[in-house]
Write a sequence for this structure.
């Protein structure tokens, strides 16, 4: 914790310095030499809030003011009272970590930040002590983005700890953090993080321009920031990736993207993002690349299944029965023959039921949530078929769709996928294949049209950049990803040099001496790759 | 992009149309027309090269004075709208014949128009990106046709040149129709970046790709059906695919149509876009989106009006085709001549000063 404390204090000091210099020119509410006036002013400004404590010391000659709800009592005693009692120092002003000001407005700000403020009669000097209490949970792995191999740390609600997690991973002077203050009431700290020299200055200017224009009473989560600055708010697709994983953020920062974090939320926004970024997971880079490619292909297939499978099924059973091969026709026909409702109604009902079960499961405590899953999934599913309300083929289709939609590593994206199913079901129910194709066309046109901070959403597929396909449909071995992808618009193109030079050297020097054991990669691909 | 515009409605019916005229020598006609069109393409390229900054409509005003240019542009817009309509009508007919016999015509056209307008409104860059993406689908069509090659019988192509030169040349006329999409290069030339030679190369590649694609389609269907059979199947590719049965799906032709629809949508969008662009430059405004809506709406109304009326459809087809000859083949040469003259004129004028 000592480390965090240092980080805390250090950063706060920096914030302060900035504010001091900002306010140096005109001091709106200068402190007075009379202690009573100062204290009264502060009390009035806080509307005599009950948790504001005023502690009179030196027989009424000085006062220590703080919010008891914001300060850490232990720190308060350690840094102020104990030295005073032990008589090590003469007065409060001798305590080394004090910062001073003559501005009462600044005192208000620092009180709100959890500092203690000390004032003395006969002096305009206000000393501030950083004794903020912070309650943090551990940097656990985020439950919505679990991975099998790789780092298991995740962001927490404290902005400084989050930045610490990133700085620990990029120990370089070019990692730059810029603070913004949003929300007239909440005064939320928002940090824009990027790597200078890799990130495109134009992109930075654009993000900065959009961030500055935010004017709102409350900015309490990245969702707010996201909706304020994203390109197209009417699009169903999220245009900024959000993640709670430091390693994911770091990877994207190093590709030249920017990260936006806000105090009080572990979720980080990454811009610009593309469609395919939502299908990448940190896991991919820890597996053998064959396995990584395979799993990524499965994920991308899941997009088509999640959006199109129910529609496809409905189109077949209600319009194009002739598509089914002869051997299968009887089974299909017999399973849907006894159902009273048309397939489109069946599908809509089942998809809605799945959504109900999912939503109920999320909000409830873990054990009950599981019960809901079993009751909803197994019992209702079985009973509905036996009652003849829904065909068992439809159950298979809908269940597959639900599973496919959960394959996407990003939670919000999977919700969108399930949402997109509905219009396609309706189109398929009314126009069959034609409807599906037009639905897909519409989605595709929309995706092509969409841009995230000036980067085409579907890049590198449209516009086609063949070189960048190395990390979309497939994942080539890491040593082959020599250049940063074009879609992040990094100004420093090269990401790595020849990292497997040793192999060439080895071959040339040991040419005469044949080795018996295999080179790495030749033998271990099978066993390692099957971990998942 | 040119590829997508060209491979449109034509591909399904082309083999039949060719066959009616040139019998089994249709593929020769196709090849000849491809070569002829190459010359036209180069002419177009020369014109476009001379005015690299201007698109076609601006070029018209440049060459034929202000009002003359506007009239020419307007005629072209009408022509493009007519072609777009034709695509709409053929598409509607095809879908209702093969897939959805009971769906009202206006639903189908409305779908196509809405996709087209949506795409056309997004601007050229998005259109180009989209076309590049969906041209991957042509590969699937290609593979499907490739599959059917296992049933082919080369003997049906023989005897070569049986129909006689005159018939073959008539077939050339018919075949030229399917390539009409090439005209858009004149309009888009100024908007694409790159050197003149590179652009020519791209244009020719695209042209040859389309030619190859058509040729493939024609040959496959000719070799699948015998000369006698061809007389009765208006859409040979579909009938051919219909006869196949894969273990997974029985009616492969339905999938073929589905993918083909994408091609139709893109080629319709192109015509919509260029006619909207033309109107925009005629009226000198910036609101391209509005004109796209107007064009879309107009063609919707007229399309409903015509509906499945085969007579009007046929009339319109022949009208558009004939107009197509004038607009797409002869006019480029006129343009070329004019631009040479004007250029000379300007040069002498410049020298005199």
């Amino acid at each position: 914790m000592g480390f965090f404390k240092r980080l805390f204090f250090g950063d706060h000091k920096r914030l302060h310095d900035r504010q001091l210099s900002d306010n140096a020119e005109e001091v709106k509410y200068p402190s007075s030499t009379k202690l009573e006036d100062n204290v009264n002013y502060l009390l009035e400004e806080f509307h005599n809030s009950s948790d504001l404590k005023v502690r009179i010391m030196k027989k009424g000659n000085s006062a220590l003011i703080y919010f008891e709800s914001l300060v850490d009592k232990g720190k308060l005693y350690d840094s102020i009272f104990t030295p005073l009692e032990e008589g090590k120092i003469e007065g409060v002003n001798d305590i080394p970590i004090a910062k001073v000001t003559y501005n009462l407005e600044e005192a208000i700000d620092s009180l709100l930040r959890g500092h203690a403020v000390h004032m003395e009669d006969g002096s305009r000097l206000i000393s501030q002590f950083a004794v903020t209490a912070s309650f943090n949970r551990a940097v656990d792995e985020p439950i919505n983005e679990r991975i099998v191999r790789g780092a298991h740390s995740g962001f927490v609600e404290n902005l400084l700890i989050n930045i610490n997690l990133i700085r620990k991973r990029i120990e370089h002077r070019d990692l730059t953090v810029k603070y913004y203050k949003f929300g007239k009431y909440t005064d939320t700290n928002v940090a824009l993080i990027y790597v200078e020299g890799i990130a495109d200055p134009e992109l930075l200017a654009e993000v900065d321009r959009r961030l500055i224009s935010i004017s709102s009473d409350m900015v309490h989560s990245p969702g707010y920031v996201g909706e304020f600055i994203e390109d197209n708010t009417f699009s169903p697709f999220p245009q900024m990736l959000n993640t709670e994983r430091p390693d994911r953020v770091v990877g994207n920062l190093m590709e030249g993207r920017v990260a936006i974090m806000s105090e009080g939320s572990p979720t980080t926004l990454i811009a610009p993002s593309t469609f395919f970024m939502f299908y990448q997971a940190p896991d991919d880079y820890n597996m053998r690349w064959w396995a990584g490619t395979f799993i990524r292909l499965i994920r991308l297939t899941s997009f088509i299944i999640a959006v199109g499978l129910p529609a496809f099924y409905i189109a077949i059973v209600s319009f194009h029965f002739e598509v089914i091969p002869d051997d299968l026709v009887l089974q299909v026909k017999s399973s849907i023959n006894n159902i009273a409702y048309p397939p489109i109604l069946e599908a809509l009902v089942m998809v809605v039921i799945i959504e109900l079960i999912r939503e109920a499961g999320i909000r409830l405590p873990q054990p009950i949530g599981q019960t809901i899953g079993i009751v909803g999934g197994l019992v209702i599913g079985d009973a509905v078929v036996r009652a003849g309300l829904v065909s068992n083929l439809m159950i298979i289709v809908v269940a597959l769709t639900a599973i496919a939609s959960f394959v996407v590593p990003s939670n919000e994206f999977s919700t969108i996928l399930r949402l997109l199913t509905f219009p396609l079901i309706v189109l398929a129910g009314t126009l069959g294949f034609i409807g599906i194709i037009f639905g897909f066309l519409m989605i595709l046109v929309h995706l092509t049209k969409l841009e995230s901070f000036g980067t085409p959403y579907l890049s590198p597929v449209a516009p086609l950049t063949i070189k960048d396909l190395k990390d979309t449909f497939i994942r080539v071995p890491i040593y082959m990803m020599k250049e940063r992808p074009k879609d992040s618009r990094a100004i420093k193109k090269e990401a790595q040099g020849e990292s497997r030079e040793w192999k060439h050297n080895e071959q040339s020097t040991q040419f005469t001496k044949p080795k018996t054991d295999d080179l790495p990669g030749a033998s271990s691909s099978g066993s390692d790759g099957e971990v998942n | 992009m040119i590829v997508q515009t060209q491979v449109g409605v034509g591909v399904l019916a082309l083999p039949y149309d060719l066959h009616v005229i040139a019998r089994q020598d249709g593929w020769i006609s196709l090849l000849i027309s491809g070569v002829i069109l190459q010359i036209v393409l180069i002419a177009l390229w020369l014109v476009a090269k001379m005015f690299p900054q201007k698109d076609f409509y601006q070029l018209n005003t440049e060459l034929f004075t202000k009002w003359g240019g506007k009239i020419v542009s307007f005629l072209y817009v009408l022509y493009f709208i007519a072609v777009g309509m034709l695509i709409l009508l053929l598409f509607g007919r095809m879908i209702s014949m093969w897939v959805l016999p009971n769906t009202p015509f206006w639903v189908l056209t409305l779908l196509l128009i809405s996709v087209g307008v949506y795409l056309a409104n997004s601007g050229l860059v998005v259109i180009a990106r989209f076309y590049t993406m969906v041209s991957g689908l042509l590969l699937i069509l290609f593979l499907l046709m490739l599959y059917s090659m296992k049933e082919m019988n080369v003997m049906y192509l023989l005897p070569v040149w049986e129909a006689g030169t005159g018939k073959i040349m008539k077939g050339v006329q018919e075949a030229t129709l399917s390539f009409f999409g090439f005209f858009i290069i004149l309009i888009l030339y100024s908007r694409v970046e790159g050197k003149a030679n590179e652009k020519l190369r791209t244009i020719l590649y695209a042209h040859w790709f389309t030619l190859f694609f058509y040729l493939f389609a024609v040959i496959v269907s000719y070799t699948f059906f015998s000369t006698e059979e061809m007389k009765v199947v208006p859409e040979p590719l579909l009938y051919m695919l219909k006869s196949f049965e894969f273990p997974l799906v029985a009616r492969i032709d339905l999938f073929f149509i589905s993918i083909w629809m994408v091609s139709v949508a893109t080629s319709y969008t192109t015509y919509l876009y260029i006619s909207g662009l033309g109107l925009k430059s005629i009226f000198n405004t910036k609101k391209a989106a509005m004109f796209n809506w107007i064009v879309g709406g107009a063609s919707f109304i007229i399309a409903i009006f015509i509906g499945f009326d085969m007579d009007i459809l046929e009339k319109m087809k022949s009208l558009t085709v004939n107009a197509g000859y004038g607009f797409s083949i002869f006019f480029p040469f006129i343009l070329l001549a004019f631009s040479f003259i004007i250029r000379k004129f300007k040069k002498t004028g410049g020298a005199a000063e």
